[in-house]
Amino acid sequence: MAGGTWLGLETARRGIMVHRQALDITGHNLANASTPGYSRQEAVIRATDPYTVPGINSSCTPGQFGTGSMVDYIRRIKDEYLDNNVRMATADSGYWEDQISIFQQAEACFAEPATNGISKQIVELFKGWMDLNNYPTDLGVKATVVETASNLAVMLSSVYKQLDTIETGVLDVDAGVVKGGMMKDQVDQINSIITQINDLTNSIKKIYVVGQQPNDLLDKRDALLEQLSHYGPVQVTDGFNNGKPNGELTLAFYGTEVLNSSSGVCLNDLELEVNAGGEIIVNSTSSGEIVNLSEKLDNQEFSGSLVGLVNARQKLIDEQDKLNTLAEAIRDEMNTILSASGTGYETFLYTGNLENGDFKVNPDLFKNPDKLDGAIAHAAAEIRDKDIASLGNSTFSEYYGFIVTDVGNAAKNANSMAANQKAIKTQITALRDSVSGVSTDEELTKMMQFQYGWQASARMITVVDEMLDVIINRMGV
Q: SUPFAM superfamilies attached here (predicted)?
């Protein structure tokens, strides 16, 4: 005995449907060949259950007549290990990337070497003292010394304020309360990403429940996870049910669970806080501390842009402190010399400090430069080459040069490390794309394969139709 009369038609029809669906998937791949984050898909084709033809001498077991094929499911080509490596590389790269522009801005504040920079003003100040030593009663020379000192004070204050503005742009804090800045913006973005991941996960779970494969939604979720990893290291655990994925997701950020779709945890209420010790912490208003960013930096866990920004901000604060130390050293040394003049100006050639914003030449002396005693000019000029204890036994020029070099090295190091990490990330991403990405040549080859398969199945229907026509319409004629 043989299969039913219409078995051949049904088998050919299934072949047409399978190849049409496979062509549709191929077209979808080609349409997304340049789509960031898209993972290649393919139709998993399997043979349908065979038709059993019982007979007198045969048992009722399958395997005698094939019934065609079907698309079992649409597979997303993905390597989870490479995805995890890309996320790790993204976090490492993120640590350096956002620091580059910050240190470049800081470097631009000093504008060294420059014709009229701070370094030049330090030289001019002591040159003025040497001129006053040669012409101790010259009112014009005295006025030049005071004016040069005032210019130096203004420049130091200006650079300090510029660094303070950059630092505030990283994190604006008022009495421990975070008001704004890059870090706050990034935490707001993190909250948005976690919300989007949670919403996508809920949609993905529903599609798995009805037995379908949410490939495009999974790609969107993976893209968001990679975006989140820029801000800090993430750990992802997918959920399974009886060995099959069910769309569940557990997400940890800096080692703390912020999303668990099975238990309903979704910490999208993160905010920044600066504690009494000056440490920067990410808190959840519903569950408490998530991560101490300052502690991560102290432990040299250089991962994620949030910790990178903490590092950049601390570096700016350190450079401000060094500038203030330099200004105070100049003030103290000058005051010591001036106090020996006996002119009544025995304290504060310079008053205040950079932090308080009142670092300047004594106003009375500025109005009456003739009160400057030329007799102290020689002692003041000699300070130029003096090793100052508060400056690490460096001269004023040497210490300022150290500050400028330190800022320049920070910018250079951030740029170099960012380039290095970017190269690593690019290489790992290329490896992932070689597995998951779309090859147009490969897809075009498949397109021809499925096209010929479709044509062959269609031809099969024509042949069966012709055979049936002979039986139905021509036999017995």
A: Phase 1 flagellin
